Amino acid sequence: MATKKNYYDVLGVDKNANADEIKSAYRKLAKKYHPDINKEPDAANKFKEINEAYAVLGDEGKRANYDQFGTAEGAPNFGDFFGGEGNFSGGFSDIFSDIFSAFGNFGTSRKNRMEKGEDINLQMTISFEEAAFGSTKQIIITRNERCDKCTGTGAKNGKEFSTCNECKGSGRVRFTQNTLFGTTIREGVCKTCNGSGKIIREKCTECGGKGSERKKSTISVNIPAGIDNDQILKMQGQGNAPVREGISGDLNIKINVTPHKILMRSGIDVLLDLHLPYTTLILGEKVEIPTVGGTTELNIPELTQGGTVMRLKNKGIKMLNRDVFGDLLVTLKAEFPKVLDRKTKEIIKSLQKDTSINLFPKYKKFNESKK
Ligand SMILES: [Zn+2]
Ligand SMILES: [Zn+2]
Fold first, then answer.
1. Cα–Cα distance between 313 and 308 in angstroms, integer?
2. How far is the CA of 366 from the centre of ligand 2 (A)?
């Protein structure tokens, strides 16, 4: 496949652009280059390019995949999805309908529509740190893979077939239908060849004519830093090969993140409930606290109130596909002794009598005003 342009450049948006910015850039360009409006010779190509870019960047999962692999070619089969001319895939039909409804039958031309294999859906459990920093994991999956011996045709040596006479190899046939509104021409899958466009004369000995085989494969999964629980990693083209020729389905991996023993994640921020002796909160102290992937020193100032939240900038989790980090929010909790011995009790009592410690001036004032 020819080298593709960077999708961000195609839409003229920044790599950090948000969903609205991407949508708006796409709308502008799609209107400008729609072949029904723009009669310049390159408009149709440009239009296709814009749609390709938006089909990826406009979909959170696909965009993550694209960012992860750097280029569309980085992942096997990635981008092939848009192979056939006029074969625009779903995902942005909502936008199409609202921009292009005025232009009539756009999107009805679906010639050369390729068959797509079934998706494989599975789950993967990763640690808190793996989600925060990203990692690469090898997994073994069993899937239908294209038979190399017949190159997916199902015919012996990939040659022993002839073109279907019924559909002339296109796999689709047109037929006329009489309706209340008159005669319409419809298109459907050719029943003679089941849409393959080919009639097998002699079956492939390897796959018995199926064109694909069940195989165990080791797949390398790139887990991007910042992925969160329940997010789905989509690996395009890593699913099952289709029956006969076409493109493979996708491998969808649902991520389960094992909780951290102490830290709690809230989006890109990380929360820590830090239980400290009440004496530490009164006197102040430097304490070592756990952070994402390490520890850091936190300076507790003198007379810090219980419940105080200290924010440690950029000590949280990296945002998925962005160079932005969340914060670590430390909530300070006062811990009291579980047992009160006589000596401690005496000391506390003496403190209580000390009028220089006026812990609740607000309530005192309130009480006095009621007298
Ligand atoms: Zn046919
Ligand atoms: Zn075969």
1. 16
2. 88
